[in-house]
TrEMBL record, chain B:
<dbReference type="InterPro" id="IPR039599">
    <property type="entry name" value="RBM48"/>
</dbReference>
<keyword id="KW-0694">RNA-binding</keyword>
<dbReference type="GO" id="GO:0003723">
    <property type="term" value="F:RNA binding"/>
</dbReference>
<keyword id="KW-0747">Spliceosome</keyword>
<keyword id="KW-0507">mRNA processing</keyword>
<dbReference type="GO" id="GO:0005654">
    <property type="term" value="C:nucleoplasm"/>
</dbReference>
<protein>
    <recommendedName>
        <fullName>RNA-binding protein 48</fullName>
    </recommendedName>
</protein>
<feature type="compositionally biased region" description="Polar residues">
    <location>
        <begin position="170"/>
        <end position="180"/>
    </location>
</feature>
<dbReference type="GO" id="GO:0006397">
    <property type="term" value="P:mRNA processing"/>
</dbReference>
<keyword id="KW-0508">mRNA splicing</keyword>
<comment type="function">
    <text>As a component of the minor spliceosome, involved in the splicing of U12-type introns in pre-mRNAs.</text>
</comment>
<dbReference type="GO" id="GO:0008380">
    <property type="term" value="P:RNA splicing"/>
</dbReference>
<dbReference type="InterPro" id="IPR034264">
    <property type="entry name" value="RBM48_RRM"/>
</dbReference>
<dbReference type="InterPro" id="IPR035979">
    <property type="entry name" value="RBD_domain_sf"/>
</dbReference>
<dbReference type="GO" id="GO:0005681">
    <property type="term" value="C:spliceosomal complex"/>
</dbReference>
<comment type="similarity">
    <text>Belongs to the RBM48 family.</text>
</comment>
<feature type="region of interest" description="Disordered">
    <location>
        <begin position="155"/>
        <end position="209"/>
    </location>
</feature>
Length: 183, 362
C-alpha cells in the first residue's frame, strides 16, 4: 500500500491519507470481529451495519475489509439476522463477481453462514448455484473448495443438477466472472 | 511420519496444482499481498485465510527437518509433514509443509515461529489453505462455527447469571453514551430472556457509589465539550479491551465493555449523546488524546508546587494519576503520559508514525 506524501507538508512525512486511515480502522474492527469475545462489544457499536455500508463503496479495500468483518461476524446468530434484515443476501451476492479473491471467498462463506430455513431458498437461487458451479472449476483451490462445500452441504442434489442443466442450456455464458487474482 | 496417507484428492499426491507453480511467477500459496515488495500494511483475518496447513520457509538445508518438526510439535500434534521440493526456495534453504491436527496449534505455531531464527536461518511461516482438501475446508468451517456458537452460548449464560445475581444495574466507566447504549442493548438482548432486571437497567441509578475527586470531574467536564469523545474512547478502548479481555479470566470476560466494577470508584454520568459511530481517523484520535494529555500534564506542574503546603481535603497524588476506572484506559493513559514526558520539550505534535513492517507474510 503506497503512502500519499503531499509535497507541501514535509513535516508529516509519514502522513496517512484519510482513506488509508479508514482502511486501518476498518481492518482493525474486522480483525476484532474474528474473536468471539469481542462480538458483544462490536454489536453494541453496530459495527455490523458499518461493515454492510462498506459493501457499496467504490474503494475495493473498504469492500474487502467490510466483507472480512462480516465473514467473521456472520457466524454469530444475532449478526446473521441483522445482515439478513438489511438485504445482506443481495449485497453479498453482488460481490461474488468481485475481482478480489478474498472478497469472493468471504462472500461464499457469508452466504453459508446466512443460511437458515427462512433464507435458504434465496441463497440457493439458481443464479448463485451456477456461479458456485463455475467456481468449483476454478484454478484457485480455496475457491474450488469453498464452492464445493457450498454445493454439497447447502444445496440439494436436485438443485445442483438443475443448475448444471441450465448452464449447459445457455448458449452464451452470461456468468459471473472469476476473480482476476484467483491465482 | 513422512509417509503420506494415500488419498486420491489429498495434497500428498502430485496434483495439477503443482504444475501451476512453474507457470507462475509466484506460488499460488503466496498471493500478491504476501510478497515483500507489495506488502500490505493491513490485513484482515478470516477463517478462509487460516488453515491447519502451514508452510515453513527459510529452513537451513543442513538436515534439521526432525528438529523443525519437533519445534512445531511444541504447539500441537503434527499430523503430517513433508518437504516442498517443488516450491522455489532461497539458496541453501528448504521449504516444508506441515499439517497440524488442530487449527489452534497451527495458529500458535505460526505466531511463535514466524520471523524467528532457526539454526542460523530465519523462518517464514504462513498459512497455506490452498493445500486443504474439500473435507479439510468443510471441517475447518464446522469447527469454527461450533466454537463461535459455544462462545456465544457461554456469554449468554454468563450474562443471565450476572443479571440475576446483581440487583443493582451495571454502570459504565467512561461515557454515558457507552453506558446508555450498553443499557439499551441489555434491554434488547434481554427481550428474549424476559428477565425482570432488564427494565430496571435502563433507569438511572439512584446513587453513585462514591463522589468523584474534583480534578477528575474537571477532566470529564472538559471531555464533554468534544464531539468526538464517545467514538474516540471506543476506538482507543477497543484496542486495549481485547488485551484486557484476554488477560482476565472468565468472570470479567464480558465486562470489558460494561465495566461493572462499582468497587473501583465513582462513575460519572455525562449527558447523553447521539450514538452514531463516526469514522474518525486514528491519527486524529491520537492527536486529540495527546492534546488532552498535554493539558493534564500542564496541571501536574501546578500540583507539584502545591504539594509542599499542608493539604486539606482530598489529597492529590503526585504525579496526578488519572484513574479512568478502566484497566485498559489506565494503561493507555500511563503509556501516553510517559510518551508525553519524553516529548514535552518538543513543541510540535509528532504525527502518528505508521510502523513499517518488514516484508510480512501471514
Amino acid at each position: 500500500m503506497h503512502r500519499y506524501i503531499p509535497s507541501h507538508v514535509s513535516a508529516h512525512r509519514t502522513h496517512l491519507t484519510t482513506s488509508e486511515a479508514k482502511e486501518q480502522v476498518l481492518a482493525n474492527l474486522a480483525n476484532f470481529a474474528y474473536d468471539p469475545k469481542n462480538m458483544d462489544y462490536l454489536k453494541e457499536l453496530q459495527v455490523t451495519d458499518l461493515f454492510l455500508d462498506m459493501l457499496t463503496e467504490e474503494n475495493e479495500n473498504f469492500v474487502e475489509f467490510g466483507m472480512g468483518g462480516l465473514c467473521n461476524l456472520s457466524m454469530d446468530p444475532e449478526c446473521r439476522d441483522i445482515i439478513l434484515q438489511s438485504s445482506g443476501i443481495s449485497l453479498v451476492t453482488n460481490l461474488l463477481s468481485s475481482r478480489r479473491e478474498e472478497t469472493v471467498l468471504s462472500a461464499i462463506t457469508i452466504l453459508m453462514n446466512l443460511t437458515k430455513p427462512s433464507s435458504r431458498s434465496e441463497i440457493t437461487d439458481p443464479a448463485i448455484l451456477q456461479c458456485m458451479l463455475r467456481f468449483s472449476l476454478s484454478e484457485s483451490p480455496r475457491l474450488r473448495n469453498l464452492a464445493a462445500v457450498f454445493l454439497q452441504d447447502y444445496c440439494t442434489e436436485e438443485q445442483v443438477a438443475q443448475a448444471e442443466q441450465q448452464m449447459k442450456g445457455q448458449q452464451t455464458a452470461v456468468g459471473i466472472p472469476l476473480p482476476e487474482d484467483s491465482s | 511420519m513422512a509417509a503420506p496417507v494415500s488419498n486420491s484428492s489429498g495434497c500428498w499426491g502430485v496434483p495439477e496444482v503443482y504444475k501451476h507453480h512453474e507457470q507462475r511467477k509466484v506460488c499460488i500459496s503466496r498471493p500478491k499481498y504476501r510478497e515483500g515488495r507489495n506488502a500490505k500494511a493491513v490485513k484482515v483475518y478470516t477463517i478462509n485465510l487460516e488453515s491447519r496447513y502451514l508452510m515453513v520457509q527459510g529452513v537451513p538445508a543442513i538436515g534439521v527437518m526432525t528438529e523443525l518438526i519437533q519445534l512445531c510439535a511444541l504447539y500441537g500434534a503434527v499430523e503430517e509433514y513433508r518437504p516442498l521440493d517443488e516450491y522455489p526456495a532461497e539458496e541453501f534453504t528448504e521449504v516444508y509443509l506441515v499439517k497440524f491436527q488442530k487449527l489452534t496449534s497451527a495458529r500458535a505455531a505460526k505466531r511463535r515461529m514466524d520471523e524467528k531464527s532457526f539454526y542460523g536461518g530465519v523462518l517464514h511461516v504462513c498459512y497455506v489453505p490452498e493445500y486443504e482438501t474439500v473435507e479439510d475446508t468443510r471441517l475447518k468451517l464446522q469447527d469454527r462455527r461450533r466454537y463461535i456458537l459455544r462462545a456465544v452460548h457461554n456469554k449468554a449464560k454468563e450474562k443471565e447469571q450476572k443479571e440475576t445475581a446483581e440487583k443493582e444495574p451495571t454502570m459504565s466507566s467512561d461515557t454515558a453514551t457507552t453506558s446508555e447504549r450498553i443499557v439499551m442493548r441489555h434491554d434488547k438482548a434481554s427481550d428474549d430472556d424476559n428477565t425482570g432486571e432488564a427494565s430496571n437497567v435502563s433507569k438511572h441509578p439512584s446513587f453513585p457509589p462514591l463522589p468523584l475527586p474534583p480534578w477528575e470531574y474537571n477532566y470529564y467536564g472538559h471531555k464533554t465539550q468534544h464531539g468526538t469523545v464517545s467514538t474516540e474512547d471506543k476506538m482507543g478502548t477497543l484496542h486495549n479491551a481485547i488485551i484486557v479481555t484476554k488477560q482476565q479470566p472468565a468472570p470479567s470476560s464480558s465486562s470489558s465493555q460494561t465495566s461493572s466494577d462499582g468497587h473501583k470508584g465513582a462513575k460519572h454520568r455525562l449527558t447523553s449523546k447521539p450514538s452514531a459511530v463516526r469514522f474518525v481517523p486514528r491519527s486524529t484520535n491520537l492527536e486529540n488524546r495527546k492534546r488532552k494529555m498535554d493539558e493534564a500534564a500542564g496541571h501536574s506542574l501546578t500540583d507539584a508546587t502545591r504539594n509542599d503546603e499542608p493539604l486539606i481535603g482530598p489529597k492529590l497524588p503526585e504525579p496526578p494519576k488519572l484513574d479512568m476506572e478502566d484497566e485498559s484506559l489506565n494503561t493507555t493513559v500511563s503509556l501516553i503520559r510517559n510518551t508525553m514526558k519524553q516529548v514535552e520539550s518538543v513543541p510540535d505534535l509528532k504525527p502518528v508514525e505508521k510502523k513499517v513492517k518488514p516484508r510480512r507474510r501471514i
